[in-house]
Amino acid sequence: MTIHGGRDHTIVESTPPPTKGQRIILFALPVQGHLSPMLQLASILHTQGFKIIIIHTETNSPNHSNYPHFTFKPIAVGVTGLTCEPEPSSHITYLNEHYVDSFTECLAGLLAEPNEPPVACLITDAEYYFAQEVADSMKIPRLVSWACTIVSVLVYRDIDYFYQKGYFNLTSEDSEYEEPVPEYPLLKVKDVIKTSRNPYGMAKYLTKVMKEVKASAGIIWNSFKEPEEAILHTLNNDFPIPRFTLGPLQKYLPLSSSSIVFEHDRTFFEWLDAQAPKSVIYASFGTLAKLSELEFQEVAYGLANTNLPFLWVVRPDVVKSSEWLDLLPEKFLEQVRGRGRIVKWCPQKEVLAHEAIGCFWTHSGWNSTLESICEGVPMICSPREVGQPIIARYVSDVWKIGILLDDVLTREGIESAVKRVMLDKEGEQIRNRINLLKEDVNISFDEGGSSHQSLKTLVDYISSF
């Protein structure tokens, strides 16, 4: 196996090594942030000679036409998909309880198909804890995929401990709220608290996840070794199973930018092409994050007050009960005409690669964070929940490749953060550090680099089944 290519695009060679033509079955959570890396992983494994089968829900289905070389198997579950209301763990628990029958039937049918190559393994999101028992009953190895940072898994492992310790009873009025977490001094207590709005349910759910992850045949991370090497060593005792750091997955292949949310708007690129290098603020808060009406208006005022050009992704559902732009401040569009563009959705990877982008204001989802690192774009972090507060803390305080807009969004705080990143000396230092991390990514894909070697090891491992 050879991985080659320039520093802008790393390509997996199309001539695959011998893999006995085995099939791999993959099953992701039906949300963009999980489907995208799973489809990227599937495409990478396909280049290595494996035949790919994607099991997916009928709702939030991936676009089959973008992957003509895959076999897709939809299953029905009677749920309309995941949202952030109520807490995500409640929805994922529901999916675990209601997918069992349809998934089991689908998997059994695939395993029994005549005249087909053997199934090497099943790869699911780690959050599908029910899948381990199903895989065991059918004697098929299950690997889990984590669409998050490695340090997040350690925090998730200990959520029940933090719950029992009373962390989630603390508020911003308590002195301990701002203190470092003794077990993880790089994090603050409030970062742990912000991971969940239903800590009891989260702890109960994650206990099941961790148990089944330890019973799996291995862990695949959409991350690379260098920024979290110390954390990987910490995991040795708790997860004594093979672990593979393949990421960032989007670096392997020039994949199509597919979305299960909205069609990509490309009409702004002519405007973006006309902007000065590193002059544009790109703001996007992902596929699920919600803003209150007050927060939405503060974001608008903050962007307007910077007097800098901006591209702002506004999903129609980003504010509950909003049509789309109806909650913008009066005369906002007139005020920013010519220097501000608002779209419902866009090809983010392509936007971040554009020379006009100077910073990325993000919800700190892991996919978005990796894309920003790969393009060397400094970040402003406004995390919401689950792993995002942990990622944001690492971006701002550990890797120092962005800054954290913490707690309350105000127009003054937004304007200050943007100017720190875009105009001040601090921003130059942040840009230098993220470009060094970008170079670490590129090195990890070179012959013998950590991601390059991890993929080779994974392919050999799966081929041995």
What do these coordinates show?
With 465 residues, the protein is an alpha/beta fold. It has two domains: 3-252 and 445-463, Glycogen Phosphorylase B (Rossmann fold); 269-441, Glycogen Phosphorylase B (Rossmann fold), CATH 3.40.50. It contains 18 helices and 17 strands. It has helices spanning 32-47, 88-98, 100-111, 130-137, 150-157, 159-165, 189-193, 199-214, 229-238, 269-273, 293-305, 332-335, 348-352, 366-375, 388-398, 411-422, 425-444, 450-463; strands at residues 3-5, 10-12, 23-27, 51-57, 71-75, 119-125, 142-146, 180-181, 184-188, 218-221, 243-245, 280-284, 310-313, 340-343, 357-362, 379-381, 402-404. Strands 5-4-3-6-7-10-11 form a seven-stranded parallel β-sheet, with helices on both faces. Strand 8 (180-181) and strand 9 (184-188) form a beta hairpin. Helix 6 runs antiparallel to helix 8 and helix 11 packs across helix 16. The protein is globular, with a radius of gyration of 22 Å.
